[in-house]
């Protein structure tokens, strides 16, 4: 399997498909690069070179004990772009992965990047504070951490219902897909899984927003119960100069799965527009 080295020597697994202009896909919590099951093949077939990698601690990448903060995550993204010498890059980040893009744009000056897409992203600031009153109450993240420490498999099974927007009598995806993503989640180390909740829940990206100087597409579902659109998607689009916001009506958090065909079409149109 192909690996590349992060700045601290951590080995990051990646998949590099096709040829053409490079697109780097950054996965969400608590999954890995395989979550792009529907997007990576479609983008590659559209004539793009697609690279998807596992965040440290997740999937097949090294399970380091430390480094679960966004400065390190942004440095890891830089390591991917540098190791593969990618130029004219489009970055696509889902959920937690949107944070990597934001911090990379500010910490590394957006080097090599000419487009960005934030899908159901955690930017610009999730946590409810005095100066961010629409944010998520800190007790929510504390409850997630408690649940993960007590019974991680059970927590993931429960979390999936909100993630996918599963109702009492209906589900937008199959039970098999939900089980598969649960299996992906359990490949991550407990340390990475828990520490990343703190990272995406408490990191303030508001100062990073002005570093976006490339065309940026923000996609968010208006029924996202995991990362509410008002505190995230709408706020992100308002903070990034010239960003375009696409709202998926009735969509939950898991847009790459529940609205795969629509998302693929929007991504190809934006990347090739």
Feature tags:
single chain, 273 residues, alpha/beta, eight-stranded mixed beta sheet, 40% helix, 16% strand, globular
Question: Could you describe the 3D structure shown?
Answer:
The protein is an alpha/beta fold and 273 residues long. It is built from nine helices and eight strands. It has an eight-stranded mixed β-sheet with strand order 1-2-4-3-5-6-7-8, sandwiched between helices. α7 links the parallel β7 and β8. α2 packs across α3 and α4 crosses α5. The protein starts with a strand and ends with a helix. The mean pLDDT is 97.
The largest sheet has its strands arranged as 1-2-4-3-5-6-7-8
Order of helices and strands: EEEHEHEHEHHHEHEHH
Range of strand content:
15-25%
Q: Helical amount among residues, as a percent range?
A: 25-40%
What topology does this entry show?
Layout: E1 3-5, E2 11-17, E3 22-26, H1 39-45, E4 49-53, H2 70-83, E5 89-94, H3 96-107, E6 113-119, H4 138-164, H5 175-185, H6 190-202, E7 216-221, H7 233-239, E8 244-248, H8 255-258, H9 260-272
Parallel strand pairs: 3-4, 3-5, 5-6, 6-7, 7-8
Antiparallel strand pairs: 1-2, 2-4
In short:
By secondary structure, the chain is α/β, with parallel strands linked by helices.
């Amino acid at each position: 399997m192909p690996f590349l080295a992060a700045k601290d020597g951590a080995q990051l697994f990646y998949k590099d498909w096709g040829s053409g202009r490079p697109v780097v896909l950054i996965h969400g919590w608590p999954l890995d690069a395989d979550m792009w099951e529907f997007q990576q093949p479609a983008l590659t077939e559209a004539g793009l070179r697609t690279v998807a990698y596992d965040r440290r601690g997740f999937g097949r990448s090294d399970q380091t004990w430390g480094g679960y903060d966004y400065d390190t995550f942004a440095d890891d993204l830089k390591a991917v772009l540098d190791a593969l010498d990618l130029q004219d890059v489009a970055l696509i980040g889902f959920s937690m992965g949107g944070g990597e893009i934001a911090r990379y744009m500010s910490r590394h000056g957006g080097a090599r990047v000419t487009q960005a897409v934030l899908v159901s992203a955690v930017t610009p600031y999730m946590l409810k504070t005095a100066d961010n009153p629409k944010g998520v109450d800190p007790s929510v993240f504390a409850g997630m951490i408690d649940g993960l420490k007590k019974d991680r498999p059970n927590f993931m099974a429960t979390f999936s219902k909100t993630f996918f927007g599963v109702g009492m009598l209906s589900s937008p995806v199959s039970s098999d897909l939900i089980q598969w993503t649960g299996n992906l989640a359990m490949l991550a180390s407990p340390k990475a899984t828990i520490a990343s909740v703190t990272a995406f829940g408490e990191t303030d990206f508001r100062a990073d927003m002005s570093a976006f100087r490339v065309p940026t597409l923000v996609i968010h579902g208006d029924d996202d119960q995991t990362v509410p659109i008002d505190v995230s998607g709408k706020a992100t689009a308002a903070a990034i100069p010239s960003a375009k916001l696409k709202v998926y009506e009735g969509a939950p958090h898991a847009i790459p799965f529940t609205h795969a065909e629509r998302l693929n079409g929007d991504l190809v149109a934006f990347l090739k527009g």
